[in-house]
C-alpha cells in the first residue's frame, strides 16, 4: 500500500519519467497495432519483435556502448530485414507466408540469443542490462533512453494522425487504393516501418519476446467495444497506456521482476474482460439478450392466456385466479407469479382480490399475440403446405418475434383472413 | 467477330496475363467505344475478372499494354473508377456506410488532405443515387449482399469518373438491387460515361448491354450486342474448354518457362 501511494503520488521525478515513458510507448504501439490487426498482419508483428534482438546485440558489439540511439538503429535494421526476408521467401518460392514467418522469427531470434550469450561471456562491464531487452524493464526507462524512445513514440502517433485516411483505405481495400492512384507500395512500406518502430520503442519496456502482445492485444480488445475506427484507436491507446502504467508500477516496486510478462498479463486480462463484457459483441451481452427474450416470452404467454380465457368465456371484464390460468398452461407457479406481478407494475394487469384482470392495454397486447399466432399458423398451412395439426408449436415461438411491419405484410399476403386453420377467429 | 473502333476509350493490345506462369489470358487485342454499356461475358474461369484487373494494373502482365483515353493508366486515374468484387474486402471492418463512400473522394483529394465539406456532400449525393441515404450511419458489417454492392457502387459514383470498370456487380444480389443497378448504369451511359461490366448471366446479357465482349481464355468476340450474341459465337465461347491451350499453359508453369521471350 505504501508503495502504491508513493508511486501514484508521482513525487519522485524518476517515477514520473518512467510512467510517462511507459504510457507513451504502450499507447503508440497500440495505435499502430490497430492497423496491423486490421490488415491481418498480426503474426508479422511477432516476427519483427523477435527479429530486433540480433540488431540490438550487433549494434552494441560494433559500438561498444548502450547509447539508445545506436541500439534503436540496430533494432530497426534487423527488424526491417526480417520483413524483407519474409516477403522475399513468400514471393520467390512455394513457401506460404505463415511458414515464412515461423522460419524467419526463429532464425533471427536464435541468432540474437547466440549473440547475447557471446556478449555476456566477454565480461564487458558495459553490457550489464542488455538482457533486459528480452523481457523488458520499464524502470530503466530514464534519461537518454526515455528521450530516444519517447521521441519515436510521439513520431508514431503523429504519423498515424497524418496518414489516417491513407492507412485506413490500405487496410480496407488495397486494390481500390491502387486504382485511385495511391502509392500503395509506399503506403505498405510506411505501415511496415511504423510497425517496426512500434516494436522497437516497446522493447525497452516489454522486451522482444512479448512485444507482439503489446502491439496486437490492445487493438483486439478495443475492437470489441466499437464499430468506429477512430474510437477504436483511442480506446486501444487508453488500454495500452493503462497497462503501461501498471507495468511501470510493478517494475518500480519489484525491480528484479521482468516488466514484460506483467504488462502482457494485464493487457490480456483487459482483452478477456472485453470479450466477456463488451456490449453487442460480448459474451455477457449475448446472455442478457437471451434472458430478455425469455421474460418477454413468459409475459406475452401470460397475457395471451388471460385473453384466451376472456375469449372462451366471452367475458374480458372479470378477473381470473392464478389456478385458472395454470389449468390451461403448464407454467411453474413461481415463475408465473413473478411474471404477473411485473405485468401489473408495467400497467398491463390489475389485481382484484388476488385475481388478475387485463387492463385495456394488456388486453390489446394479449389480443395481438393471439392474432400473430393464428396468422402464422395460417401462413404455414397455406404457403408451406404444412398439416394444420403441425403448425401450433412453430407459431408458439414466432408469435413473439413478428414486427408490426411483418404483421402488416402477413395480413396482406393472406388477404385479410378471418379464421385460422383450426377455424378459430383471428382477432 | 472482333470489331475494332476508332478513337477507343479503352485499348488493350496483345495482352497476356499469367498466374504462376500459367497464362490465363492469351494475346487479347480489344478496343471499346465511348458511351457504351459493355458486358464482358464468358464461362467460369474464362479470365473475365483477370481482364478487368489487368486493365486496372492490379496484376502483372506477361505481355502487352492497356491504354485508356489513349494514355497509360497512370495519367488517367482521375477519369477511371473501379468497383471490385464484393467478396474482395472484409466487411467486418470498423467503418460506416458513409465512411466507405467517402473513400471515393480520396483520389481527388490526394494524400494528407482531409475530406472537405464538399466531398461529404458528394458522398451523400452518391448514396442517394443508389437509394441508400438512410443507411449512411449504418455499420458496414450489418449490410446485406445487395446493400454492400450498392455501397461499392456509390463509392465509385462519388469519384465522378468517365469510365467505370465493374467486377460482377450483379453477383449474389436480390432482384430489386439488380434492377436498381442496371437502371443506374443506363443513366450513366446516357450521360456519356463508358461502363464496362463483368457479367456471368447470359440470359440477361442481351437485354442489359449494347456492346458485348465474349471471352474464354482468349478473345472470342467483341462488338455490338445483336451482332455478337449468336449461336456460333456462343458455342465457341461456352463449347468446352480449349484443352490444348490449357495443357500448354500447364507446361509453361511446370517448366518455369516465360510466356514471352524477353527481348
From TrEMBL, chain A:
According to the UniProt entry, its GO molecular function terms are: DNA-binding transcription factor activity; protein dimerization activity; transition metal ion binding
Q: What is its main location?
A: membrane
A single Gene Ontology CC term = ATP-binding cassette (ABC) transporter complex
Listed transmembrane segments: 15-38, 43-63, 69-89, 101-119, 139-164, 176-199, 205-225, 232-250, 262-284
Top-rank taxon of the source lineage equals: Bacteria
List each copy of the Iron dependent repressor metal binding and dimerisation domain by range.
359-427
Question: What kind of membrane protein is this, topologically?
Answer: Multi-pass membrane protein
Q: Which GO terms describe its biological process?
A: cellular response to iron ion; response to zinc ion; transmembrane transport
The compartments listed are: Cell membrane
Task: Write out the entry's keywords from A to Z.
Answer: Cell membrane, Membrane, Transmembrane, Transmembrane helix, Transport
Listed Gene3D superfamilies: ABC transporter involved in vitamin B12 uptake, BtuC, Winged helix-like DNA-binding domain superfamily/Winged helix DNA-binding domain
- Please state which protein family the record places this protein in: Belongs to the ABC-3 integral membrane protein family.
Q: What is this protein called?
A: Manganese/zinc/iron transport system permease protein
Task: State the organism named in the record.
Answer: Pontibacter indicus
Automatic annotation (TrEMBL), chain B:
Identify the keywords attached in UniProt to this record, alphabetized. Answer: ATP-binding, Nucleotide-binding, Transport
Keyword Membrane in the entry? The reply is no
Q: Name one Pfam family in it.
A: ABC_tran
Q: Which domain of life is it from?
A: Bacteria
- Per UniProt, what is one GO molecular function of this protein? ATP hydrolysis activity
Positions of transmembrane segments = none
Q: Please list the residue ranges annotated as the ABC transporter domain.
A: 10-242
Task: Please name the SUPFAM superfamilies in this protein's record.
Answer: P-loop containing nucleoside triphosphate hydrolases
Family the UniProt entry places it in: Belongs to the ABC transporter superfamily.
- Protein's name in the database: Manganese/zinc/iron transport system ATP-binding protein
Q: Organism source for this protein?
A: Pontibacter indicus
**What lineage does the source organism belong to?**
Bacteria, Pseudomonadati, Bacteroidota, Cytophagia, Cytophagales
